[in-house]
Predict the structure.
Amino acid sequence: MQKEQLSRADAPTVVLHWTLVATLVVSLATGLQIAADAAGSSWAQAVRPMLLQGAVSVWHVWAALALTLIMVGYVIFITRARLRSRVAIDAYRLHSLSSPAHRSRWAAINVLVYWIAFLLIMAAAITGSLLYWAPGLLPHSLVSLIHQGIAWLVIGYVILHVSAQLAQGGIRQILKIFLPHFGYGTALFGALIGSALIGVLIYSLDKVSMQSLKIASTSQPPMIDGDWTDEAWKTANEVKIQTSRGANVKGGEIPMRLRMLHDDEKLYALFEWPDATRSQKHLPLVKTPERWFVKQSKYNIEDEDDYYEDRLGVMLAQSSTLTGAGAAHLGKQPLAGKPESKGGRGLHYTTDGSIVDVWHWKSVRSGNHLMNQIDDNYMGPRAVKFFHVQ
């Protein structure tokens, strides 16, 4: 009994454990906020008031990287410290599952519970990597649904993990993780070095994987008339972009082709994408015997998708960290004391004092030869201007 009361976990395990817990909390609080922003979300919407607000997409990516490095560090640590028996599923552990000794049986069960955590984190890493590095390889809606499902399973796992620890040794078993003893310092140092090297490798791969477009120079710029057969475009380089979460599109995904040219003064861009329908209804007015009214579904919260024409938004920024996620701050009120967004989805602004240029093409106004209008907006510091996320 005295030995059980004084039982402690080694310091490296305690550090890795609580770092993992903190990282998981950030991952869940940001990931569910991102999920709550998607159309049709229900469970994530229910817990949204408790979630982190702000540049959660950026935080989520960094938390995912940290989570990966912690798991790599743990594998290196138990290998160098020769502690693999802690998580080994061998004949002894399998036999212990049916042992009449309560403590031995639950110790074996807890090892199986650990492996559930390993598998969940591995599955989250795989699905998250597909969403980040390989959009379009598999249906985005399917991969994101699996990724979100894993998040809910992780929450359930926490309950299972604590319950299994209590069943094994009561509150003393829980207190072990709060009472570290020093040891295995060399193994921990090796784990830190290994994790750092893997982090550098992942960061380098991320930089290499980014698409780049070398914009060719032209002395005969194309006519801005919507004709993609213009001879000038034949000399332009191109990239293909896989978009996702689009409205009124099967699966929300559309592959896009982008070509650009410049004449030392102006930049010319050609965007092409498949679209089976031509949508040109924009908040149509309907007359009834009593009155006129606007047909809309979410126009009152500035989030109309049903009664809206085809549209495309393009963001131009000097830094890749600002494109998309870096300038999007999700949540009902990401800035305390500042106005909320009408749709509760967040605000667009920058935090480094820069200005991000945003162009909106809309088929009714931009594709109409009488109007021939394209909207040029910007996102700037929060003291300059706000834009609702749409």
Summary: Residues 300-390 form one domain. The first strand starts at residue 9 and ends at 10. The CA atoms of residues 141 and 251 lie 6 Å apart.
